[in-house]
Amino acid sequence: MKVDTLWRRRAAVNVADGSGYLLVFVYAWVLSVGLGAEPLGPSDRPEAYFNGSSYIHLSRPISLKQLVGLSFRTCVGGELFSQRFERYTLHVVALYEQVVVSWTLGAQSTREVGLPKETLDNRWHWVALRYRPNPPALLLEVDNHTQVIANVTWNPELLSAGALEAGGAVVLVGNLFSGCIHEGPQLEFHAHSVHAHNVLFAHCPLTTDECQSTHSVQII
Ligand SMILES: *[C@@H]1O[C@H](CO)[C@@H](O)[C@H](O)[C@H]1NC(C)=O
Ligand SMILES: *[C@@H]1O[C@H](CO)[C@@H](O)[C@H](O)[C@H]1NC(C)=O
Ligand SMILES: *[C@@H]1O[C@H](CO)[C@@H](O)[C@H](O)[C@H]1NC(C)=O
């Protein structure tokens, strides 16, 4: 198998120069190629309730070169999904009157791009990151609104291979989020590929009343 050969060859290089760092990166890359290639499709428990101390940890890495997204319903908001790998973090958060994508890469300070839209209204909303290859750009989608997060002249670091395909990253859904999340592309809730903490997999138990008062969870 092609991956296998490359993996062994790189591993041999690694042993020769004694760099564990390279090993980690190659291992992560092999993981992303090996596990991330096949889309899983919908699971048999697509909807989940998060109470603010819940989260889902996905054991499969995500690729920002393919559509990644989910739907959510909340009056409170919080983090929808995030990934973290070494010194790279990326968060997508529903806040009062906006959805924000923030990221840190290497020694760079945290940057963020927001899309102004009220989503803390107890109605279902769609959020996604969509990669457009030509010309390269990463877009934030909230319902039918779109906002450029990165392109060749603006936040280009997010379009680097390491950021788009952070194989081996820790991917969390619904961390510090209160409300319901319906799975979406690359963020599926298959029992064999997620570790869930305090998550209730069920039809959204929230009432469909209007929100009493909206306030957002602040996450930095
Ligand atoms: C998004 O959809 C809503 C309702 O379907 C519509 O009223 C609105 O004009 C649309 N916005 C854009 C930017 O297409
Ligand atoms: C990149 O995005 C910014 C902000 O939307 C825009 O002003 C700029 O024209 C874009 N650059 C390219 C090359 O598309
Ligand atoms: C969330 O649910 C878990 C398990 O049912 C419970 O232990 C925890 O206290 C709850 N947290 C909040 C903030 O309600």
Write the layout of secondary structure elements.
Elements: H1 2-17, H2 20-36, E1 47-51, E2 55-58, E3 68-85, E4 88-95, E5 98-105, E6 111-116, E7 125-132, E8 137-142, E9 145-151, H3 161-164, E10 170-173, E11 178-182, E12 194-197, E13 200-201
Antiparallel strand pairs: 1-11, 1-13, 2-10, 2-12, 3-4, 3-7, 3-10, 3-11, 4-5, 5-6, 7-8, 8-9
Helix pairs in contact: 1-2
Bound molecules: 2-acetamido-2-deoxy-beta-D-glucopyranose (3 copies).
Keywords: Membrane, Transmembrane, Transmembrane helix
Transmembrane segments: 20-37
InterPro entries: ConA-like_dom_sf, Laminin_G
Provide structural commentary.
With 220 residues, the chain is of the alpha+beta class. It has a single domain (40-201), classed as Jelly Rolls (Sandwich). The chain is 17% helix and 39% strand. The protein is built from three helices and 13 strands, in the order H-H-E-E-E-E-E-E-E-E-E-H-E-E-E-E.
Number of domains: 1
Biggest β-sheet description: 13 strands, antiparallel
Structural class: alpha+beta
As a percent range, the share of helical residues equals 10-25%
Query: What would CATH call the class?
Result: Mainly Beta
Q: Give the mean pLDDT.
A: 84
Low-confidence stretches: 1-37
Q: Termini, distance in Å?
A: 42 Å
Give the tally of β-strands: 13
- H/E topology pattern: HHEEEEEEEEEHEEEE
Strand content: 35-45%
How large is the radius of gyration? 18 Å
Do you know the CATH topology?
Answer: Jelly Rolls
Please, how many helices? Answer: 3
Global morphology: globular
**CATH second-level architecture:** Sandwich
Ligands and ions found: 2-acetamido-2-deoxy-beta-D-glucopyranose
